[in-house]
Automatic annotation (TrEMBL):
Main location: membrane
InterPro entries linked: ABC_transporter_permease, MetI-like, MetI-like_sf
Its membrane topology: Multi-pass membrane protein
UniProt cross-references to PROSITE patterns, sorted A to Z: ABC_TM1
Any single Gene Ontology cellular-component annotation: plasma membrane
Keyword annotations: Cell membrane, Membrane, Transmembrane, Transmembrane helix, Transport
GO biological process: transmembrane transport
Segments of skewed composition (Basic residues): 35-45
Organism: Paraburkholderia acidisoli
Keyword set includes Ligase: no
Residue span, ABC transmembrane type-1 domain: 108-316
Record-annotated membrane-spanning stretches: 51-72, 113-133, 145-165, 189-214, 235-260, 295-315
Protein name (record): ABC transporter permease subunit
Amino acid sequence: MTPPTAQAVAQRVEGAVPPGANPGPGGMRASGTHAPKKRRASPTARRQRRAACLFLAPACIMFAVYVIWPILSTLRLSLYNWDGMSDATFVGFANYVELFEAPTFYTALKNNVIWLALFLLAPPLGLAIALYLNQAVRGIRFVKSLFFAPFVLSGVVVGLIYSWFYDPTFGLLALLLGHGIPVLGDPRYATAGIIFAALWPQTAYCMILYLTGLTTLNSEQIEAARMEGAKGWTMLWHVILPQLRPVTFMAVVVTIIGALRSFDLIAVMTGGGPFESSTVLAYYMYDQAVKYYRLGYSAAIAVVLFAIMLLYIVYHLRRLLRSEH
């Protein structure tokens, strides 16, 4: 056999291919050549992308106009002193400094924390009622309608009903206890009384969410768990609740938002009293804007309230996403 020449050895070492030669199936590409250009999207793919953008455009525009723009406007307004009629005066962070030095702010913040702690009873109560109502027995539809009724009532109606319930002279609570207790007139009980009234419709809302989630459970997993002997609390904790995790996340987030933006029941039942003992951040914001025409100061309260909501929602969202991985 004729020994290979030096040029052939060099071509083999460097992986070069002689000019005009095509590389084999496993051969290497000739040096100096470029990778093929990326293929352009087909006309069908471009039309699909254009259609998707057109469908999303109205929702994006509405979100920008009704959500993003008001948030940015509130952030800007919080840096001004404005009464709604005269020219606005730039004051920087003076509104925030005054806010953090006001005793009413800390009272409202404390009440918001109490609202948040007690309001989180609504998801487990709603789950318990949903589990009770999720059975095929005679008359269960009528019972469901009774539990569903508070959800369709407005906050004003709920506030009036519980104001009559708490009335120390002729209220139902006075009849049950045998003597009247001024729940809404006592700074020690006013906040708890309002929260108890607010839990009524909020529990009904969580119940509806869980009833909807129970209809989507995987029956095969439940039957397999029953064959393995799971029942009662074990079935609920290891089989049902993991499938209801998205519903639980929605119920918790909605409950947190409802607790932090509580306003209507306070306005109807106590007006923030007695002695501002039942005021919360949302009502404090309304009070400063409507009664005292301090729109810049009110916007600063709104920014703080929005930041608290955002922290809670991001925290729970991260927990949900982490648990799914």
